[in-house]
Write a structure and sequence with these properties.
Number of helices: 17
Structural class: alpha/beta
Radius of gyration: 27 Å
CATH topology of the largest domain: TIM Barrel
CATH architecture of the largest domain: Alpha-Beta Barrel
Shape: globular
Low-confidence stretches: 476-486
Number of strands: 10
Distance between the termini: 87 Å
Length: 486
C-alpha cells in the first residue's frame, strides 16, 4: 500500500433529496462504510428531515420521523461514523423551501426559487428556525454544514439592485454578509458547533476583502472539485489563499457518484478514482493537516427539480475504491484485492460495466439488475435503430400505415418477444429489489425514467406488428381462395 492517508476525517455524503433510503438499509450499509475506511457522514436531509410547526410544509411525504433520525444517528454511532448534518441556508433553496407558494416572497428573484433574498429579515429567521430544529436532533454535533454554494441570481433582485447602487457595495459583500449572519446564529445558539460552507462563492473574492469580513473566524470552507482532471496546482494555491485570509481549518470534497451527468445510471468508476487520487496530490502540496478531512459527495439529483442520477447502492463499488484509495494513499493491487473482498466481487472493474456478478454487499442485487437493464436498453435501441429488418421493412412510415411483408414478421417478432420476456422478468425482480431499499415514490420515479421508455417502445413495436399482420388475411385467418381468381 502507498502510505497513510492525509485525510484524518473521511465523510460519506448522503444526499437525501432524491431516492432517500429506508432506515433499514442504513443498518445494512453503515457497517460497510466503516469497514471501507469512512469515519463520518455528511447527511443532507433536505425535505426528509421531520420539520415541525410552521416548518412542517417542508417535509416530504416519506420524511423520516424524529425517532427514525435518532435511529440513524444511533446506527452511525455503533459504526463509529460521526454525523454532520447539512442545511442549505442561501443558494439551492429550491430544493424544498422556496418552491412553496407561501414562501415565494422570500426569493431573491421572484421567478426563480433558487436563492434567498438576503435583505429580507424573515429569511434569516426562517434559516435560523431550520438550523435550530436540525440541531435539536443532533445534540453535540461538532460541525453543521450550512451550504451556501451556487447562490445563483444573487444581486439580481430589486432590493439587491438598489443596494448595489450604493458606493462600495458589491455582490461579494452581500454574500459575505449573509454567510456571517448565518454562521453567527449557529455559534450563538450552538457554541460548540462549527459551521462548514461550500467554498465556491468565496474563491474569487479578494484576499483583503475576505480577511476583513470576519467570515474566516466563523466558518471552515469545504473546497470542492469533482473533475477527473482537477487543477492540482490551482487548488493548492486556493488553500494557501484561504490560510492567508485567516481560515484556520479547511476541508476537501471529491465525488464518488452524481457528478458526471444528471441522468447517469452507473458511476464511471475510473473517473471518480482519478478525482480522489488528485485530491491526494492536492493534500500533499500543503502543510500537514492543512485539510481536516474530505467529503466524498454522492449527489442524488443535480437540484430538486432534476431527474435521479445514480442510486446509492449502484455507487457502492465506486465509493469503496475511492475510500480505500484515500485511506491508503493510492490505488495499488492490494487495495483492489481488499475492495473485492469487502464487496464480495470476484473481479472489480474500474472501466465499463461489471461483466460477471455485482458482489454480495447490501444492494448489490440492485447494481446487478440496473446493469442488466442497461444492456437490455441497448438491445432495444439496437433493434429499433440498427436492425436491418426493422429499419428496412418496418420503419415508422410502415408502422403508421400497418404495412409489412409477411416474411419480415418472422424476422422481427421472435426477437422482440424474446426481449420483452427478458424485460418483464427484469422489471419484476428490480421492482422488488428497489422496494427493499426505497419508498414507493422513488421506485416509481426510477422505473418511469429508466425502464418504462424502452419497455414501452418494445410493446408498441409488437402491437404495430400484430396490427400489420392482421392486414394479411393469410396471417389473420387463412382463406383457401387467397391469391386465386374468383
Amino acid at each position: 500500500m502507498s502510505g497513510p492517508s492525509p485525510f484524518k476525517m473521511r465523510f460519506v455524503h448522503l444526499d437525501l433529496k432524491g431516492a432517500p433510503p429506508k432506515v433499514s438499509y442504513f443498518s445494512e450499509i453503515f457497517p460497510l462504510f466503516h469497514a471501507l475506511g469512512a469515519n463520518g457522514l455528511l447527511i443532507e436531509y433536505e425535505d426528509m428531515f421531520p420539520y415541525e410547526g410552521h416548518l412542517g410544509l417542508l417535509r416530504a411525504q416519506h420524511a423520516y420521523s424524529p425517532s427514525e433520525v435518532k435511529e440513524i444517528l444511533h446506527l452511525a454511532t455503533l459504526n463509529e461514523l460521526e454525523v454532520v448534518p447539512l442545511v442549505q441556508t442561501f443558494g439551492h433553496m429550491e430544493q424544498f423551501v422556496l418552491k412553496h407558494e407561501t414562501l415565494a416572497h422570500l426569493r431573491e428573484v421572484a421567478l426563480f426559487p433558487n436563492t434567498l433574498n438576503p435583505h429580507e429579515v424573515e429569511c434569516l429567521a426562517l434559516v435560523g428556525a431550520m438550523i435550530d430544529q436540525v440541531m435539536e436532533l443532533h445534540p453535540g454535533a461538532r460541525w453543521l454544514h450550512v451550504g451556501c454554494d451556487e447562490v445563483y441570481y444573487l444581486g439580481e433582485g430589486e432590493a439587491s439592485r438598489q443596494w448595489l447602487q450604493q458606493e462600495q457595495n458589491t455582490k461579494a459583500k452581500l454574500c459575505l454578509s449573509h454567510m456571517r449572519a448565518v454562521a453567527s446564529h449557529v455559534l450563538a445558539r450552538h457554541p460548540t458547533t462549527t459551521p462548514l460552507v461550500w467554498d465556491d462563492m468565496l474563491r474569487d473574492i479578494p484576499e483583503e476583502q475576505l480577511s476583513a469580513s470576519g467570515v474566516p473566524q466563523l466558518v471552515e470552507p469545504v473546497l470542492w472539485d469533482y473533475g477527473a482532471d482537477l487543477d492540482v496546482h490551482g487548488r493548492a494555491l486556493l488553500m494557501e489563499k484561504y490560510r492567508k485570509c485567516g481560515f484556520l481549518r479547511l476541508w476537501a470534497a471529491s465525488a464518488f457518484k452524481g457528478a458526471t451527468g444528471p441522468r447517469q445510471a452507473l458511476p464511471p468508476i475510473e473517473y471518480h478514482l482519478r478525482n480522489n487520487l488528485q485530491w491526494l496530490q492536492v493534500a500533499a502540496r500543503g502543510p500537514a493537516d492543512t485539510l481536516q478531512g474530505i467529503v466524498l459527495t454522492g449527489w442524488q439529483r443535480y437540484d430538486h427539480f432534476s431527474v435521479l442520477c445514480e442510486l446509492l447502492p449502484v455507487g457502492i463499488p465506486s465509493l469503496a475504491i475511492c475510500l480505500q484509495s484515500l485511506l491508503h494513499g493510492g490505488f495499488a493491487e492490494d487495495v483492489r484485492a481488499k475492495v473485492e473482498n469487502l464487496l464480495g466481487i470476484a473481479s472489480l472493474e474500474t472501466t465499463g460495466l461489471m461483466s460477471e456478478g455485482a458482489g454480495s454487499f447490501p444492494g448489490s442485487d440492485i447494481l446487478a439488475l440496473v446493469t442488466e437493464g442497461l444492456h437490455l436498453r441497448s438491445s432495444v435501441d439496437e433493434m429499433l435503430q440498427r436492425d436491418r429488418y426493422v429499419t428496412g421493412w418496418f420503419s415508422p412510415y410502415h408502422r403508421r400505415r400497418k404495412l409489412i411483408h409477411p416474411v419480415m414478421i418472422q424476422h422481427v417478432q421472435p426477437q422482440a418477444l424474446s426481449l420483452l420476456a427478458r424485460w418483464s422478468a427484469l422489471v419484476q425482480e428490480l421492482e422488488a429489489a428497489l422496494h427493499h431499499v426505497f419508498h414507493e415514490d422513488a421506485v416509481e420515479e426510477w422505473l418511469e425514467e429508466n425502464v418504462h421508455p424502452s419497455l414501452g417502445q418494445l410493446q408498441a413495436l409488437l402491437q404495430d406488428l400484430s396490427e400489420a399482420a392482421g392486414s394479411w388475411p393469410s396471417l389473420a385467418s387463412p382463406s383457401p381462395n387467397l391469391g386465386q381468381d374468383p
